[in-house]
Amino acid sequence: MKRFLVLTKAMTLMHLRNRSTLFWNLAFPVFLLVIYSQIFGTMDVGGTGFMTWVVPGIIVLNILAFGLISSGTMMVNMREKGVLRRLQASPMPAGQLVGSYLLVNVLIALSQSTIIVVFAALVFKIPLTLTGTLLALPMMMLGILTFVALGQMISGVAATAGTAVAIGQILNFSQMFITDMIMPMEFMPAWIQKVAPYLPAYAMVQLVRPPLVDGNLCGDLWLNLLVTAGYAIVAGLFAARLFRWAPRT
Amino acid sequence: MVSRYQKRISGPLLDRIDIHIEVPRVEYEKLSDERLGEPSAAIRKRVEAARFERTRMLANANLCPCKGGAEGGAGPLPAGRRSSWTPGHGSEVLHGIPEIYPLALYIGPVPLYDRVTRNLLKLNSGREEESKMHAKDQPVNIVIQVDRLSATYGRGANVVEALRDVSLEIQAGEIFGLLGPNGAGKTTLLSCVEGLHKPARGTARVGGVDVSAEPTAAQHKLGIQLQHAALLDDLTVAELVQVYAALYEVYLSADQISSLLNRFGVSEKHNKLARRLSGGQRQRLALALAVASDPEIVLLDEPTSALDPHARRGVWGIIRELHSEGRTIVITTHAMEEAEALCGRVAIIDSGRVVACDTPARLIAGLDTSPVLKTSLDAPLDQVQSLPGVHSTHYSGQYLEIETSQPQATLAALQGLALQLGRSIGDVMLRQPNLEDVFLKLTGKQLNA
To answer: What pTM did the predictor assign?
Structure first.
């Protein structure tokens, strides 16, 4: 147990010291929030103020980017440097290593989401309720696990860190604007409105938004839970199958 | 580290503390036989340093070599006296009596006493100490056993045989070398022992534990350094030590981490990120990480290949120190000097097979070649042939090559001949047979192409 904690602490420090990803992960959402408040601040979306509506979307955006890009990159880096090989030769069980890695990712993603929520609540006066936040938390956890699993799947497929980032960015940007996160679905063309509900980001937004906006659970709860969990399980299986200790020669 | 010394002082070896240092074969020969000349200054310095170290250990344990008599033991100080040892160079004097004690110098498992000390002992006791070769009495303990190991890479048509039917036995407490060119299979062999690569056939055992059957138990006994020293760049040096030790369930306190880093000469980088270390510092840190969990067996893959000669010797010093603590060390190298300088026994590997396994001295002796004296002197061959010790001689280009079993005597006579002929000797090169020659003879290939 103690060795699990030592490793978790070490990987957390590694993540936090990697300043560039941290900057993008926090600065970008905050930047978006500020810009959007200037452009759309006075608009209304389906009865709620725009900022209230967009903040959950920004949180999901952050989790999306973190999961697809940042979380996979550290693993790929460790693999490229030969660190994973060294860990493989140590008596630490692989399960503990993966568990520790997941825990670090979850902790960092959660703290980033918290920072965004607090920032939004203080600056844009988003109305938050206690029940709403408590309901949103497990949804966010599920989302974090889903996108981290997707990120790990990418890192299993990608040969180098550069490739992993590229694939992650493609998946990130392709979902960013069309899944009702920061741009309301009503503005999208019909074909996107048909396709988007099958994307994991869409399902996640539907799960996270209602608790944070008005304290209720999502309408199509089971459908969206199924979609998200489905992605998580499939991605997790692929990630486990594709996991390599050493780069492919 | 300190605990191992103390174990030796307070155990059955209370009255005997020997320091073993290993020297290249050539120097060893000189130390044993005065006719071969004076040992080099470097070797003399190391002998002095070893003596120094032994005296210091005795002083720290409040023992005095003067009380042990001619056998070179040690006993408690006279009542009321404290050891008045002060650091210095040359022979140490403990409360007025120059200390004399046996120093075991050896290559491989057979120790012999230093001739200087031997002579002094003869003066003192009139007894022959040479019969006391205590290492022979100790039973041989095998820590790593490789039995008919074969390993492959790739699948189907692209299968590459990295190891073919390799069998080795590595004994406790020795420095064992795997010498071979790049691609010979040294790293693959270590990977199989470390549990990183699954062999196609055969077994590898570490401390009696089958690596394939119980990899975790086997890995616990090993300290390893992979060929490409993999460091987590975003952690500080101290954090790295903590993590690498924790992987083996060894939890080090801040003091222990400090003393480990101090020992390996990276303590001033204690709180610096690993990415800021220079090449030599990274290498020393990698060594420190390999022993952070205090393993009995240490496997080092090419520990000095990326270093300049000065840093190389520093690492050799550390390896010898680790060895003197009783650890078994296995090194991979493609440099003959490293194998000759460090290893008690060497296995020569080529194309996945072990072509020879013995001490460097015996491997070279098995060559049955003599040293070659090469000089630019214009002299008739029959006159050169008649010089003392000369086996054969011929001209190779403008150089005269002389195979001789007594290079010093031949050289002296050669100078006389030159004087007699009224000519001058230009370049002189003396080439002793070495492991590269052994490799060439056994495989027909150059060790370093």
So the answer is: 0.72
